[in-house]
Amino acid sequence: MNPEIKNGGHKKIYSISEFLSNYQRDINANSPKRCKTEYEMKNIQNNNNNNNIQKMNLFGINDNNIQKMNSFGINDNNLLNNVLNINIEHIDLYTDDNNFKSGEFIVKNYECKFIFDHRVLLEMINEIHFTPKYFEFPIFYFFKGTYDKDSKIIKITLKDYRSYKIKACSNNILNILNNSFNNEQDLMLYAKNYKILRYKEKIVYPKNGWELYDPYCEYLRQGINDQFNFSEINLNYNVCETYPSVLVVPKEFNYNGIYIIASSRMKNRFPVLSYYYHAITDKRLFKEKGEIKSYLYRSSQIISKSQIFEIEYMNKIMNIENNGKGFIIFDCRPYLNAKANSFKGAGVEDIKQYKNCQELIFGNIENIHCVRKSLKAALLKAYYGNETIVKGKISFNINNLNMKNFLTKFEDTKWLKYISDLLLGSITVVNHLLKGVNVLVHCSDGWDRTSQICSLVQIILDPFFRTIEGFAVLIEKEWVSFGHPFAIRNGCSFQKDSKKERSPIFIQFIHAVHQMTLQYPTAFEFNSNLLLFLCREIYSNKYGTFLFNCERDLVKNGGKENTISIWSDVFLEKNKYINDIYKEMKEPINVKGELQYLNVWNDYFFQFDKLGRVKENGIYIDKGQNLSNVIKDNKKSILELLKIIKEEGKEDKMKNNKFYNLYKNEL
To answer: Are 387 and 395 in contact (CB under 8 A)?
Structure first.
């Protein structure tokens, strides 16, 4: 039975009580899959009519479905040919000015791989010993490349600023990389293939990541009441293209003026509810019935002089259950930046127009360009140590660095300063919410710094978001659903000037979460492995989660039907991401954001070896480690190495290698 349709029957406005009575949702159970909106059904129907999409349920793929995916280039007949379509060139990979390793550089349509010619698998690199046979990276990690005709050297730079120097007979490799993807459908190809390959591997997922976040269930879990409505006024994304189809808005309001209200804000991102905080407090400390109720809203910056509808809407939404405590506006931007936008037709609110607006606070959080430059500088400091990039001397190994000198240079990148700004801004918002003061958070467009602050605030306040499932729900809600432009920020967009809009905003958020986990090591169900996994996969194009700019694009391109959510794989290997010392902490965590409390995330900045390979792909013997234990733990891999050395007749060459002899003696 459908809830009553109000406002002339063309938009659905569900009161909380109506929703509960008609749908009988159990908010303590796992969220059921929400019925598709009319917009979703329309797009799926249109795509089916054009033979573009055959809906595939994550747990119900079959060979018949796959055969009908041919318009995306991934039916069962051409799947393997497509995925394994490779270009191979024999090259020399330079590790520094004078040394190189010969091998084959293989370019597939979804990854690049370098395989060593002579299987020189036992090497000494400073004080760390490792034994990977090859290294690889997703092709979508490719950022740019140059070719020097005289030296025949190709320099490849990835999106995480790792770089490689390759000597090849021609620039064929570079041409292939530059032309590897030319439209949005190419960008989805790897994710679609990956889903089908997982099916062929007969993977059984314990959870479907696309079903974790249900807006109805999540807001009911938070405890919102009849002061609000679930509204599908943005059902077809006509009011705001980058907002979700389901919004939580004030109950008693004239929605006929919603388009005017939306037009007062950049990209039509008008104020809507992000989070409801409700706590029973100690009456000895709080006089007002021992109860706190406060609301966190999000929007974009104001772009025109406030209209009567906008003022009325703000007065209504910002003073709900406020008991006269008023509200504040938290503008994430530096004051001068916000003022400068006024010359472009945007700017800041005149708080005198609003009822009970206490203050307009500026967060002094820098923009996407500063963040991009900062992380680039920080990564290059980690990768190349004290050497210049021009010389090409790579120092991926943390043991090669003078840490005191490195930390001094790292400070110059301002990376930790920018993380500190995020945390301090979040703490400011939290402190007001804890006092029962409502808060509106916005930046310029309302999808970068706003997503960061709203997410960090909820992690501080709500223990659910410090669990693996809650963290997934939070990212789906504040980033995917509320329209963080992943495609543009990750460099997967073909929009004009999109290269200038690349920025690691999501990675910066993950780094801020990591700082919280260091301060409260038992309060989070997940460990740093999960955070590192998210940072690595954001550029891979393997998961639909990070492929789109907003919910509308996700629906339009059939993202949920044709790709796997990253959370499906997270829950498949959940044990890898469990914090063994986790103990639920129900109260808010008292995060410290000042620089002196922050630390360099070594596992992130030093996750690669000398050749830019993820260290977990090899065998390592660190100084001071018990060699016998390492050999026992890696017995299978080491036996394989010894077999290869024997088959290739390299035993004589290895007889003076102390590690080779130790391996043989131990085994």
So the answer is: yes
Rounded to whole angstroms, how far apart are CA atoms 359 and 372?
31
Active site residue 217: no
pLDDT for the residue 29: 42
The first and second tokens of residue 244, run together, are 């979700």
Question: Quick one: which of 486, 513, 314, 352 has its CA closest to 422?
Answer: 513
Residue 252 has a pLDDT of: 75
DSSP, res 490: T
Domain borders along the chain are: 7-81, 87-180, 626-666
Q: Which alpha helices (H) appear in 398-481, and where do they start and end? A: 403-412, 415-434, 449-461, 468-475
Contacts made by residues 619-624, CB under 8 angstroms, sequence distance 24+: 619/129, 619/130, 619/131, 620/128, 620/129, 620/130, 621/128, 621/129, 621/659, 622/127, 622/128, 622/399, 623/127, 623/399
From the list 212, 205, 209, 219, the residue with the least C-alpha distance to 470 is 212
Task: Write out the DSSP string of 219-249.
Answer: HHHHT--TTEEEE-TTTTS-S-TTS-SSEEE
pLDDT at 552: 96
- Specify the pTM: 0.81
* pLDDT confidence of residue 477: 98
Considering 240, 332, 443, 550, which one is annotated as catalytic? Answer: 443
What pLDDT is stored for residue 43 in this prediction?
47
- Could you count the other beta carbons within 10 Å of the beta carbon of residue 588? 17
CA angle 159, 163, 164 (to 5 degrees): 135
- Tokens standing for 46? 């249109």
Q: Are 453 and 426 in contact (CB under 8 A)?
A: yes
Cα first-last separation, the chain: 69
The Cα-based distances of 505 to 245, 323, 415 in angstroms read: 24, 36, 12
The single-letter code of the amino acid at 220 is L
Give the whole-angstrom CA distance, residue 79 versus residue 378: 40
- Smallest CA-to-CA distance from 418 within 485, 332, 502, 338 is with 332
How many CA atoms are closer than 13 Å to the CA of 366, on its beta-carbon side?
19
CA separation (Å) from 113 to 136, 137, 157, 177, 354? 4, 7, 15, 13, 59
Q: Look up residue 468 and give its amino acid.
A: I
Could you give the 3-state DSSP secondary structure of residue 592?
Answer: coil
Say if residues 464 and 217 touch (Cβ distance below 8 Å). Answer: no
Q: How many other C-beta atoms lie within 10 A of the C-beta of residue 191?
A: 22
**pLDDT value at position 58?**
37
Amino acid sitting at position 330: F
Low-confidence stretches of the chain (pLDDT < 50) are 1-10, 24-85, 97, 118-132, 283-287, 386-401, 617-625
Please give the pLDDT value at position 163: 83
Closest CA to 591 of 390, 478, 365, 430: 430
Q: What is the pLDDT of residues 111-162, one digit of tens each?
A: 787 776 544 444 432 233 334 456 678 888 888 888 888 888 888 888 988 8
Could you write out the DSSP letters of every residue in 21-53?
HHH---TTSPPPPPPPPHHHHHHHHHHHHTT--
Topology (CATH) of 87-180? PH-domain like (2.30.29)
In one-letter notation, the amino acid at residue 428 is T
What letter represents residue 441's amino acid? V
